[in-house]
Amino acid sequence: DKPELRGRLAEFHLHEGKVGMAISELDQLAIFYEDVGAIRNAIRTVEQILELEPLNRAEYETALLRLRNQQ
Q: Using CA atoms, how far apart are residues 61 and 71, in angstroms rounded to an integer?
């Protein structure tokens, strides 16, 4: 996976007003970071998602707590 590409793609979607698509890319990016042990990056990415007011906010808040407990 290429995290920088996902980040750029998320920015592009936001620029185009496609918040749902941006959240989807950021979600995959957070998963990637967690999988490779980059917990701080995963936390920052989930925080970015929460700033976008996702419909499933509670799930991301739970994920953020879980990630913070891994630090």
A: 16
Task: For residues 69 and 55, give the distance between their C-alpha atoms in angstroms, rounded to a whole number.
Answer: 24
User: 50: Cβ–Cβ under 8 A, 6 or more apart, which residues?
Assistant: 57, 60, 61, 64
Q: Which amino acid is at 49?
A: I
Token digits for 10?
Answer: 């998320």
Contact 42, 63 (CB under 8 A): no
Instruction: Report if pTM > 0.85.
Output: yes
Q: Which residue do the tokens 């976008």 mark?
A: 52
pLDDT for the residue numbered 1: 66
* pLDDT, tens digit, 9 for 90 and up, residues 22-45: 999 999 999 999 999 999 999 999
